[in-house]
Amino acid sequence: MYQRLAASLGEELTYAREDQVKATAELARQEGAISALKHRLQVTRRLQLLAGLMSLVGATLIGFGVNYVTDNKTSPGWTMLGLGIALQVIALGANLVDRE
């Protein structure tokens, strides 16, 4: 009777150890996935900050460019306007590319 009980407990211990090994492997896999997601989040935040700054600079260039064009109709105004529009489009594209 005690031998069967000991054998049964030994089998349960073996199954518990196997489950522990599987759980440890799953935990390591999930920790790797979490680490990859944290890295992706960090990259996304940096890209959003850069896109926001580019959009701000682009809007400022558009404003000054329109002001120069309406006052003097000079070439620097058109250049500023073009650069501002280009920066706005690049900033929008950077946000869209990151969304995948």
Summarize the structure.
This protein is 96% helix and 0% strand. The protein has 2 helices and no strands.
What does this entry look like structurally?
- 9% of the residues are buried.
- The longest helix is centred in the middle third of the chain and has 71 residues, at 2-72.
- Helix 1 runs antiparallel to helix 2.
- The radius of gyration is 30 Å and the shape is rod-shaped.
- With 100 residues, it is mostly helical.
- It has two helices and no strands.
- It has helices at 2-72, 75-99.
Mean pLDDT across the residues is 88
The end-to-end distance, rounded to whole angstroms, is: 64 Å
How many β-strands, per DSSP?
A: 0
N to C succession of SSEs: HH
Q: pLDDT under 50 segments (min length 5)?
A: none
Assign the structural class, choosing from mainly alpha, mainly beta, alpha/beta, alpha+beta, or little secondary structure: mainly alpha
Largest sheet: none
How many H/I helical runs? Answer: 2
Helix content: over 70%
